Amino acid sequence: MHHVMLEDPDEGSLPDIEYSIPATASLLERRPQTLKHGDTFGLFDQYGDIPARDGSPEGLYHADMRCLSKLQFRIERKRPLLLSSAVQDDNGVLSTDLTNPDIFDGEQLRLPRDTIHIVRSKFLWQGGCYERLRVHNFSPHTHTIELTLLFGTDFADLFEVRGHQRTTRGRRSTVVDAPDSVLFQYAGLDDVTRYTRVTLEPVPTRLNPGSARLLITLSPGERRSVFISVLCREGEIPPVMHRRFAPSFRAARQAMRQSTARAAWVETSNALLNELFCRSMADLYTLMTDTPFGPYPYAGIPWFSTPFGRDGIITAIQFLAIDPDVAKGVLRFLAATQAREHNPAADAEPGKILHETRAGELARLGEVPFRLYYGSVDATPLFVSLAGLHLERTGDLETARALWPHVEAALSWIDTYGDRDGDGFVEYFRATEAGLANQGWKDSYDAVFHADGRLAEGPIALCEVQGYVYAARRHAAEMARLLGHEDRAAALDAQAERLRVQFEAAFWCEEIGTYALALDGAKAPCCVRASNAGHLLFSGIASPERAARVADQLMGSAFFSGWGIRTVAATEARYNPMSYHNGSVWPHDNALIALGFARYGFKEHIKRLFTALFAAGAYMELRRLPELFCGFQRLSNRGPTLYPVACSPQAWASAVPFALLQACIGAEFEHGSGNVRFSHPVLPEIVDQVSIRGLRVGSGHLGVLLRRFGQHVSLNVIERSGAPGVSITL
Questions:
Q1: Residue 134 burial (CB < 10 Å; 0-12/13-18/19+)?
Q2: 657 occurs within a structural domain
Q3: How many domains does the chain have?
């Protein structure tokens, strides 16, 4: 997907080591607690600390730089005892309960353990981390206790934290510039000065550049609070903040309520499934960041808390029925950043859609190529499809008209730069050695290979990309008709049909019963059974007969682990259930396949897939589907095997339950008539009923209740405002 964890390379191969996530940085081992707001996110340990260990990913990050790398709390110079630690259900606040260990004066026990209760509550808001330390004395005696905070920053670029080695760095300085505040400063080599300010209330007894000491006297039953704020800024010195915890907390909660109010709400008869939907909704809106162009779901924490083109588009597609404003924000952002010139260092060509953008020092300096990076072969056709799907969902002709020049530019890129050799297929080949070698969603160095395990040499035409191009032309044709461009619509439909016929001839591999993973640079098919073929059903390019064969194969034992569909069948040469892309299970991959099953009417497959992914999510911590997990076969009384550096939360994984629900119920929005049609709805056996409230239809809202009776589903309208109509096709 992104700059991936380094697998064991074949001798002589050159994987993208520089941008890979090192296998030594296991997030599972640390199980960090995660907070995010806007361009700021934090990773904390179970105590609420930032431990400052070598190779540790914990920290407070702002705009791709770690602005706080150490934050440790001590009571009487001892680490407290952990009672509990949890992020609230809406991801807004990290709450940690602590107590004191036994404290001795020499051999005399002065403060027995469990005497002092400490609650740490912290949240992020507008580039700052706000924390309240509430200290409660449960002893019948008065105690004077010493509280210590140790803090510091390395101002490490996110890519440094991930393992990138630097030869030179900017200048750091620290000053205690107020009795209650310390200012850290970093003058970067990119001519940007970054600041971190740590402020404490009340004024500490002693304050040094890296520590603060407070003496607090508590009478029996008394509670006192200490407030800590950490503000991160670029180019401006952050102010000393006093009494900001409560008003900032109220503002953060109000902002979250306002953003989630746009979304329809899903509730089912299955309590565990409800937890999965609630967690997914909370994670999506945590990852959602307000840009000048609208909301954009940042890809994932910790490594990908930034806009990714492919991820944003696929997340928006999966979530389109629930909140179409996400698709609008993604489209407008990607239109604004669409490449306008040829720049090999950024893999940019006119009309191409962004792969990712980074704001850190290394990106600004060009030491990593990702400031505005376009090394993605599929984001451009997916952008066109999303534009068409958004119009289909909303009937928003004004937005479609504004996007049309960008759609045309993307289509032009597909026809020219995307198809350099004029063979009718879109291929990729990185423009420089600094770019990503593989530029589909499976972007591991070893993700595209032949049946004997040999890595494919480029330029490479991935099968799913041809499907995306087919869908893009179909969606663009419908947009063109609605905008009054009839001749353009006819030409796009004709192009799509020519591609479909040509694709069937070139990609179908009868010997393996599915479509080739790709064509290599010599136009030789990679006859490998891979989940990529499932995306062809999502796009609609596959013939009905072959689609049925692909679907049955994907749900067979070589692909289906019991938890979901593997990225590569267990029969293939490079199959490894612990790999990033060659045998693992990716929830978003499964969701797109489920939407493809729905297109071709394979409803029983959808129910089975829905049930499997629900079972996997039920085993996950917080009921949170991660970026991926291992592809080992499901065993009785055991959960799925986790992947060590999977991002969690991850936007397109968080949107999966909503895509699976859409695949089941087949909601179709007919914007011309204001009607919502439910096409051949089904529900898996784990669910007896589903209610969806606040579903936006034009200027109105709709609520429906779907009930399962054996193999059949009934539909009732439970709320309606405006004039949306409802119908069901059984």
A1: middle
A2: yes
A3: 3
